[in-house]
Amino acid sequence: MTDAELRELVLAEGEAAEELYAEADRVRREHVGEAVHMRGIIEFSSHCRCRCGYCGLRADNQELRRFRMTPEEVLQGCQEVADLGFGTVVLQSGEDEWWTAERLAGLVTDIKSLTPLAVTLSVGERDEEDYRLWKAAGADRYLLKHETANAQLYARLHPGMTLESRLHCQDVLFRLGYQVGSGCIVGLPGQTPEILVEDLRLIESRQYHMCGIGPLIPHPDTPLGEQAAGSVRTTLNMMALTRLLVPDVMMPATTALETAQAGLRLKALKSGANVLMPNLTPRRFASFYDIYPGKKAPQLTLAQEVERTKAIAREAGRPVATGPGHSPRVS
Hints:
The chain contains 13 helices and 8 strands. It has 331 residues and is α/β, with parallel strands linked by helices.
């Protein structure tokens, strides 16, 4: 597809959008099958050194009640994820310097020795030696979203950070043998259809193993608090186009999409997505990971949350996969 064709499809509405979703669903079926892969997320620290303009965890947010799980609490949470039948745990946090490379490596070692889980880490930009240490400890995947492929927009939203540094970290992760995940936010201020095409071209050129795309959900305690929410239609269009450009990508129906509009995880599963990621953070901590509004303390137990998530796959007419659900590119 040309850039002009991509731009037109980014903006697709009505019948054109539905045709796009149907084609993405067909490509998904052909390249990654019918199964929906489940990832259990544990958000284990809300401390963060960064000041990203859209994120409720930003260091400047004095209204946030911070928390940090201990290694023992995280390990117990991982054992619960395994007991619930999951094959993968996603460990996500702010860029918390208390979690040194050695602490996190020890945790990964314990998880791999005590559970059958594949481990995805999402803890931000770190030195190459940190990434190397975690890979040696047994980490399988790493999620580090590029957020926007436009360097100027990236710099405006990430004080003191650069897109070049973010992509360098991804390069290191690829070289070390991680399954690498990225993704972008739809609806950022100053983001044009042309910039969204830049995102798609970046995703296509780097051939990520995983890609998560969600709408901006403005947080009142951030500089983007007055910004309009990102378009869910454009988000679905971007997801579908990502499936067409990287046919074997592992792509979640994101929680942000569901937060923006109830029922959209089901729509996403019919538009190219093949992953669901229920929040399995221990309930006494879950309400404090206030990355965007609407992400409140889950009222359901872990088992109820799992069942609710599996029901979305069933409603889509899709089986729930067992096992770790690695990228098809991993033997």
